[in-house]
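Thread: "does anyone have the structure for this chain?"

Original post by V.I.:
We have the sequence but no experimental structure in hand. Need at least a predicted one for the grant figures.
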Amino acid sequence: MCVVGEDAMRILVSVIRHLLNLAGAYKVYEWYLEKQLDPKRIPTHIGIIMDGNRRWSESLMLDKFGGYAVGADKVYKAVEWCMDLGIRQITLYVLSTENLRRSKEDLESLFKVLESRLDDLYHDPRVYEKRMRIKAIGKVERLPEGIKAKIHRLEEATREHDGYYITLAIAYGGRGEIVESIRRIAERVKRGEIEPDAIDEKVIEDNLFTSDLPKQEPDLIIRTSGEVRLSGFLLWQSAYSELVFLDVLWPEFRRIDLLRAIRIYQSRKRRYGL
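Reply from O.Q.:
Generated one for you, tokens below.
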């Protein structure tokens, strides 16, 4: 009996998908999925945990830089797909605080791609034509100087934009965000600006990294790679988010997968704890 390894199976699946795409089958299925969606119930805010870059590159025997580069290119497409559907807020989990403990080689590859793509975004006319506001949340101060400078330049250039809100969670952790919120509130208490008894959920939300977004809470959170966990992504904001876990590695993420996730979202009844 022949046992097919996981990497070989992923390659086989990738080849089959490519052949189906060439045959036009995916276009038909994509059209079918989009027709099933209710345009009045499209999510306002989507969060995406972009997982699986390294596994994808390893399965194809590519170096880490290649995997991160393809994954970064997929971000452009995913954002375009979201905007085409009328989704105005997209929060992308780029790098967790735990990821900063990866090997030097791994981080160098990731940072090289990140710095290049931040530069591309700054010079991309679509950012300005569509008035995309791009902001990073997280412990940005822990990033290399070159990346910090490019983040600051991009944020300043798009600060007044209000067409679409693209939030990049970089060196981010949900627990750390809540801790930082508490610290900010404690400083306000110390200065006599607020009484302890006045601290409620809204006060905490007003001190989160996402406090300046029109809608802090994602309606839908998508995670790729088949892993079933949030990994610290928007822990406070995701209390009532619908979660969809897809068994596809991020570099292989397609518009079909986005449409499938939204169809699942629309099939659910949001109860908000009731």
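V.I.: this helps a lot. Strands lie at 45-49, 89-96, 132-137, 164-172, 220-223, 242-245.
O.Q.: and The CA atoms of residues 52 and 250 lie 5 Å apart.
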